[in-house]
Design goal:
Largest sheet: none
Distance between the termini: 29 Å
Strand content: under 5%
Number of helices: 5
Amino acid sequence: MAILALKGTLRNRLLGLIRKIREKESGKLDLAFTSWAQSDPDVRELVDRVAELRIGFVKDELSESGFTGPELNARARLFVVYFSWSEVMFKPAPDGLLGEELDQILNTITETPNQ
C-alpha cells in the first residue's frame, strides 16, 4: 500500500487518501457490490477482503499517531465506511472534494480526547 506515499500529519495523510478515493469515484460501485454481496457468498468474500485491506491501511496510518485497540479499529472502520460511501450520499462542495463537514468528520476520527 506504499503506492500512495502519504506524507505529513495524520490529518494531511488522511485528506490525501480522501482525495485519492474521490478521484476514483468508486463509491457507487462500492455500494452496488456491497448490496450484491448480501445475496452472493462469493461476492461477499471479495467485498470483505477489500474492506479488510482498506481498514488495515487506515489502521496503519492511525496507529502511527498512537491509537490502539478497539478505538483504533473503530476509527479505521468509520473512516473506510464513511469515505467509501459519502460521495454517493452527499452533494460535492464547490471545490469538488466533499459536500459534507470534512473538518468535523476528520476531527472525530483523528483527535484524541485531550486535544
